[in-house]
């Protein structure tokens, strides 16, 4: 009988080549920034994700979930422990008078919105340029152009300590870019979600998607970034405050506050997470001093800082 000598040995035995050690996380983030994870495990379906979560819970091993890698800044020193890479991408459309789509949590949200448009379904046009995955959108109540996840969500399937459970949008306790998941009021992971759609035509929906995409390109910078860095304060915009503080275009190392939109920080080439963090601190300090507003991060800091 073979004795498994470490938790990693157990993971290899149960999950095989889905387990990798000492893997750089930079390629898995939208900003292309971040050090290595001690262990990276890839889940290819919602069922696999549930299996991995259950296995890690039984082994009493904590982990960090990574989907599309937007809205996160991974430290240069990386993650001491386990990262689960969510690649669960199953999609099912439901036609009828009240159409909807069920998507696993690793589905890229913008891709899903464009697939809906190609089938003549309206309702998710606002998401056609939103970075990240369905799971991340449910977790953080992603939104744009007057729409948000809370407005489309019919139910979400979560894996909690009690097993697989379905929650309505009301039960997820949504607020501006937050939920009971993001506030850590519920220990659970997103497996899949059903989103409300509307019957339309491919032509009408595509026109809206193209309008939103053109607006996004005109007002937000290209290049590797995390998306919006700070939450918009009540009655104002983080980008306006950063511009008013004279910080657009500011650089530390190869990290730059976009000259086009102050709430986007760009990786100009091999940027260090520490440089992004220094820019964050500079912005928070300067905006507080000049504008009297305390900016709250929309992104999350991950890893060993």
How would you describe the overall organization of this protein?
There is one protein chain. The protein is an alpha+beta fold. Helix content is 29%, strand content 27%. The strands form 6 sheets. Strands 6-7-13-11-12 form a 5-stranded antiparallel β-sheet. It has a 4-stranded mixed β-sheet with strand order 1-2-5-3. The longest helix has 19 residues, at 273-291. The model has no long low-confidence stretch (mean pLDDT 94).
Shape: globular
- The poorly predicted ranges are none
Q: Describe the biggest sheet?
A: 5 strands, antiparallel
Distance between the termini: 41 Å
What is the succession of H and E elements? Answer: HEEHEEEEEHEHEEHEEEEHEHEEEHE
How many β-strands, per DSSP? 19
Please tell me the overall pLDDT. 94
* Range of helix content: 25-40%
**Cα-based radius of gyration, to the nearest Å:** 20 Å
Concise synopsis of the structure shown:
With 305 residues, this protein is α+β, with helices and mostly antiparallel strands. The chain is built from eight helices and 19 strands.
């Amino acid at each position: 009988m073979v004795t498994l000598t470490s938790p990693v040995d157990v993971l290899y035995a149960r999950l095989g080549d889905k387990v990798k050690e000492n893997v750089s996380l930079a390629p898995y983030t939208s900003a292309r920034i971040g050090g290595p994870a001690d262990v990276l495990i890839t889940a290819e379906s919602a069922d696999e994700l549930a299996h991995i979560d259950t296995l890690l819970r039984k082994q009493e091993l904590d982990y960090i979930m990574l989907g599309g890698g937007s809205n996160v800044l991974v430290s240069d020193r990386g993650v001491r422990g386990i990262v689960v890479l969510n690649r669960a991408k199953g999609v099912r459309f439901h036609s009828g008078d009240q159409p909807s789509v069920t998507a696993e949590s690793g589905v890229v949200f913008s891709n899903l919105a464009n697939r809906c448009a190609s089938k003549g379904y309206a309702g998710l046009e606002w998401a056609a340029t939103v970075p990240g995955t369905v799971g991340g959108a449910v977790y953080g109540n992603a939104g744009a152009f007057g729409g948000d996840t809370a407005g489309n969500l019919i139910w979400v399937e979560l894996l909690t300590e009690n097993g697989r459970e379905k929650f309505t949008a009301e039960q997820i306790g949504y607020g501006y870019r937050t939920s009971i998941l993001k506030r850590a009021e519920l220990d659970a992971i997103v497996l899949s979600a059903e989103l409300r759609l509307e019957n339309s035509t491919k032509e009408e929906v595509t026109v809206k998607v193209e309008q939103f995409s053109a607006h996004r390109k005109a007002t937000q910078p290209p290049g590797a970034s995390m998306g919006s860095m700070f939450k918009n304060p009540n009655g104002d915009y983080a980008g306006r405050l950063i511009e008013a503080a004279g910080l657009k275009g500011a650089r530390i190392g190869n990290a730059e506050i976009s000259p086009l939109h102050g709430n986007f920080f760009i990786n100009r080439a091999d940027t260090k997470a520490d440089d992004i963090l220094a820019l964050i601190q500079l912005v928070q300090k300067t905006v507080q001093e000049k504008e009297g507003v305390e900016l709250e991060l929309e992104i999350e800091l991950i890893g060993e800082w």
